[in-house]
Design goal:
heterodimer; A: alpha/beta; 6-stranded mixed β-sheet; 11 strands; 35% helix; B: alpha/beta; Rossmann fold; 2 domains; 14 helices; 67% helix; binds adenosine-5'-diphosphate; binds magnesium ion
């Protein structure tokens, strides 16, 4: 199948700290790829390198079969990135936020208006389109954050912990929408430290710790790594077994 | 397409009342305070009805033939030129009650001003400048044609040596001063962009550093210009401040707005910290204002001219004040050129810094 993303020995160092260590990922068209890992594992750093926000210390990223750095403009147009941080302006209304970020991709006029409404509709905020983002609840802000990345109809959507700190309803809504996008043909990369989310929606999972992928496969395959009888173990236990049970102070 | 980016920046700035406060209310308050504080001081500097200026004409001076013309310009302004053969200017000024003294050398002249009579000193300066201007016209006429044209002496010119009243002075100067604090209106947005990583989101759309810079510059220029216009109109309505040569004045102020924003954006692009940017910009603007007459009027300040001309605010202040009182100013062109150079220079540095930073990150 078509390879959408390939990282070759992707490495990011901050001083002596290796945040991402020789990462080799391959993601195919149509997948929902889950990147699972504890806080500080290097998930956001990896995503930022894939989106050209950070430059790798070593290695490179290929997207849609092309080198990211040599084809930035072309590749970035096909990417939708939902950052872990809520990258929205509180002083703008919901629709204005979507307008701002969608217009950056060269969409204008009627097409822009349609894209704004579709994106807001998609995350269930169409009724709230004229309200200021600063007055939104945590869940609504998360959804608006997602809407801002949808307007230009990306082929690859990258979610960086989109469900942190929100109510169960919003969380459920977001997970269902991700599935729906995938069914409509969008490839998804989904990072999280919540096992059950990843297990529920992802077709393939990689477990990351200390900047390295320590295991990958379907949830069944991952469970088999630890025990033979996959009925008796949850992915959470696999995760804890593989990443170690020590507490992480991040 | 940065059109929508600019539009949304404008909306955000328009929604924050701090901007309106800073660019409209603050200058007006300062105008009221400073003009009343300095009004008595400025009155004491009003020129004497008529006064005398001493001069020594050296033998080989080219000015010798023109002394009658100089005297004529002076007479129109109630100034009498008295000839001396020799002597120490300072001593003569004291003994003979002369307000200033001129020594005409071979092809130049030196003006001695009496301490305590700066206004009269400046009038002397303007009389000679006016004469020099006429000399040029005269010479050009000689070179071009066979007939020597009748030289119309521009006697009204020294009148623009302003007896500025303090409200008229501060009414303009404080507006100019706040123009130089322009980035304040954009600081909140830039801080939010950094805190919420919105700047990264802008870059990952593939938008270039240059386009993002332009969007910031254009939108903040629009807001500061609009606020400045309102503030200037308010000075007319509230204090009856007289602004002159509207197009030229507007051009000088507009270019200063852009230059100030470029300078401040450049500082931000270099240090990547809004608090430091504001501290540095405000300190720089305050120092420039101090030497340029933003607090104590430049007309009578004791700073040497060679220091004052270093600061763009000085050129702007003089251009605006002189355009209003005399309709023309030697500082109009220098202010325009100074601002344009700053716009180009600072933008280039800002973009280089922005691209280096982007490359380090991306
Ligand atoms: N700008 C930075 N400077 C120094 N260290 C950083 C920086 N960003 C991230 N790190 C470190 O890199 C590691 C990976 O961080 P991150 O990618 O945010 O993890 P995750 O998203 O998986 O929680 C962490 O140990 C973090 O402290
Ligand atoms: Mg993270």
């Amino acid at each position: 199948m078509d390879m959408i993303l390939k990282t070759n020995d992707l490495t990011k160092k901050y001083g002596s700290k290796i945040a991402v260590d020789n990462l080799n990922l391959e993601i195919r068209k149509g997948e929902i790829f889950g990147l699972l890992g504890p806080n500080g594992a290097g998930k956001s750093t990896t995503m930022n390198m894939i989106c050209d926000i950070l430059r790798p210390t070593l290695g490179n990223v290929e997207l849609f079969g092309k080198d990211l750095h040599k084809n930035r403009k072309e590749i970035l147009k096909k990417l939708g990135y939902i950052p872990q941080d809520l990258a929205i302006h509180g002083n703008l209304k919901a629709w204005e936020n979507v307008e701002l970020f969608t217009s950056l991709y060269g969409i204008k006029g009627e097409a822009l208006k349609t894209a704004i409404d579709e994106s807001l509709e998609y995350v269930g905020l169409l009724e709230k389109r004229n309200e200021y983002a600063k007055n939104f609840s945590g869940g609504m802000k998360r959804r608006l954050n997602i809407a801002c990345a949808l307007g230009h109809k990306p082929e690859l959507l990258i979610f960086d912990e989109p469900t942190v700190g929100i109510d169960p309803q919003s969380r459920n809504f977001i997970l269902n929408k991700i599935k729906q996008s995938n069914e409509e043909g969008t490839t998804i990369i989904y990072t999280s430290h919540y096992m059950e989310e990843v297990e529920a929606i992802c077709t393939r999972i990689a477990i990351m710790d200390d900047g390295k992928i320590i295991a990958s496969g379907t949830s069944e395959e991952l469970k088999k790594l630890v025990v033979d009888n996959t009925e008796s173990i949850t992915l959470e236990e696999v995760f804890l077994t593989l990443t170690g049970k020590k507490l992480r102070d991040y | 397409m940065i059109r929508y980016l600019i539009k949304n920046y404008l909306k955000m700035m328009g929604r924050s009342p701090v901007n309106v406060l800073l660019f409209i209310v603050f200058p007006i308050v300062l105008i009221a305070v400073l003009s009343s504080a300095f009004s008595s001081l400025m009155e004491s500097y009003e020129r004497k009805e008529s006064f005398s200026v001493g001069y020594i004409m050296e033998d080989d001076s080219i000015f010798g033939d023109y002394m009658e013309e100089i005297k004529k310009i002076a007479r129109e302004n109630d100034v009498t030129f008295k000839a001396y053969d020799e002597g120490d200017p300072d001593k003569l000024m004291k003994d003979e009650e002369l307000e200033s003294f001129v020594i005409f050398g071979k092809d130049d002249y030196v003006i001695y001003k009496r301490t305590g009579s700066p206004t009269e000193g400046m009038i002397t300066e303007y009389i000679l400048t006016a004469f020099m201007r006429n000399m040029e016209t005269y010479r050009e006429g000689m070179m071009r044609g066979m007939e020597v044209p009748q030289v119309e002496l521009d006697v009204s010119y020294p009148d623009h040596m302003p007896e500025v009243d303090s409200i008229d002075y501060y009414g303009k100067i404080e507006i100019i001063y706040f123009v130089w604090c322009g980035l304040i209106c954009f600081a909140g947005i830039i801080m939010a962009e950094k805190r919420y990583k919105i700047s990264q989101r802008l870059l990952m759309s593939g938008l270039s550093v240059t386009k993002i810079y332009l969007a910031k510059l254009i939108s903040s220029t629009i807001i500061v210009s609009a606020c400045t216009l309102i503030a200037a109109l308010a000075t007319i309505a509230m204090f009856g401040v007289k602004w002159g040569a509207p197009l030229k004045s507007a051009l000088v102020i507009f270019l200063m707005i852009v230059a100030a924003l470029c300078m401040e954006l450049m500082i931000y692009y270099i240090c990547d910290n809004m608090v430091i940017t504001i501290v540095i910009s405000f300190a720089a603007v305050w120092i420039a204002g101090f030497f340029s007459g933003s607090f104590e009027t430049y007309l009578f300040s004791s700073h040497p001219e060679s220091t004052k001309v270093l600061f763009p605010i000085y050129h702007g202040n003089r251009a605006i004040v002189e355009l209003a009182s005399g309709g023309r100013s030697d500082y109009f062109m220098s202010s325009v050129i100074y601002s344009l150079s700053m716009i180009v220079g600072c933008s280039i540095l800002a973009l280089i810094a922005g691209k280096i930073r982007r490359r380090g990150r991306a």
